Amino acid sequence: MRVARVARARGVLDRVARASRCARARDASASARSSASTDARLERAPAASPASPRFRFEVLRASTRSNARAGMIHTPRGTIATPGYVAVGTNAAMKAVRGDALRRAGIDLMFANTYHLMLQPGAATVEAMGGIHAFMGRRGPVITDSGGFQVFSLGTPDRSANAKGKTKELKSRKATKHRRENLLIDVSEEGATFRSYRDGTKMTLTPESSVLSQKQIGADIIIPLDELPPYDIDRETLEESVHRSHRWMTRSLETHLKDVRQQAMYGVVHGGVDRELRRMSVEYLSALPFDGLAIGGSLGRDAAELGALLEFLMPLLPKHLPNHLLGIADMENIEHAVANGVDTFDSCYPTQVARHGTLFTRSRGRINFRRAEFRTSTEPACEECECTLCTKHTLGYLHHLDRANEPLAWSLASEHNLYHMGDKMRRVREGILNGEI
Ligand SMILES: [Zn+2]
Hints:
globular; alpha/beta; eight-stranded parallel barrel; TIM Barrel; three-stranded antiparallel beta sheet; binds zinc ion
C-alpha cells in the first residue's frame, strides 16, 4: 500500500515538474511575444487534473442567460454550495459571533488568516490542539490564505489606499491595522522577511513555510504565497511580480503534493488589470494540478474596473475547477461577480460594517441602526430574516445596546448580516437553478 502511495506521489510530482517546465516555457514565451499575436502563438494548455483525491467540484447548472453557474464543492468536511459567500474568521473566530451561527446562516465555508494564526497562537499550537476544526469546534470546511496579504501590508506604508498620490483600490491594504511602522524587511526570491507586530521577532515567510503552516493549521483549502503588487506600478515591474508569484506557487504546489493529506490547493491568478498578464497567469496555473483557482492581485480602482476585468477573465478559467474571488463581497460587486461565473468570494465587510452600525435588509436596503429615528423603533430589523435579532428584538433595543456600548449589539448585528448574506446567496443559487439569473 505504502509503496503504491509513494509511487503515486512520485508520479504526481513528476507531472508537476513536467507541467511546471512546460508552463515556465510558455510563461517566458508569453512575456517575449507581442500582445497582438498572443492567441495565435500560444498553445492552449491542457487542463491539469486536480491533485486532491477527496476534493471535487460539480456544476449543477450553467446559466444560459449569463456566465453564472450553480454548483457544489465536495470536501472531506462537507459540501460548499456555490455561488457562496465565505465568512472571514481571522483568528479562528467570527468577531463577536459564535461559530455555529455560520451553519444556521447557511454559510458553508469559513476563511481564516494564516498570518494572524502564525503569530498567535502559532501554527504548531493549532496543530497540537488537533487542527483548526478541533481547536474552534467547527465541523465545516475552512480555507486559509498564505499570510502574504498581511505581510506585504506591513511594508511601505505609502502603499496605503489613502496615501497621497496613490490610487484608491477596491481591495486596499489597510486591512492590517498594525502597519504603524515599516515591518516588512525584505522581499527576495526566497520569500518575504518581516518583523512580528507583536514582539518584533524577525520572521521569514516562504512558499514552503506558508504551505507547512497551513498544513499545521489544518485548512481544507490552502492558498499559496504570492506577491501583492499595488495598483500603481509600471508594466515591467508587474510582469516580474507575476512571474515571481508563479515561481512561488509552483514551489508551494511541490511542497503540498509531497503530503497532500485531505487538503486542496488553489492557485492564484495575477496580473492586476493588465489583460495579457492575466491571460498568461491563467495559462500558467491551468497547466498545474491545482484543485481550484483564486483571483488575486489588484482588482482595480472601482466596481466598473473590477467588472470589466471579470468579464474578460472569467471565460478564460478552466470550467472544471472551482474559483474564488479574494477579498470582495460588497453587494454591488457580488451580483456582477456571480453573473460572470464567480463561485465563492470572501470579505470581512458584512460583519465589519455591522459592528459600525450598518445592517443589510431585504426590504429597506442598508440601514444605520445608530440613527436617532430608530431610538424608539418597535420594528424588527428585517421581517423576512430568521436571525436572533430579527426574531427576538426590536431595532430600538439594538439602538440602545449600541449606545450603551453593550457587546451584544455587535453580536446581534454581525449575526444578522451573516444571515442576510447566507439568505441572499441561497436565493441567487435558486435563481440560477431556476434559469432566472
Ligand atoms: Zn436578521
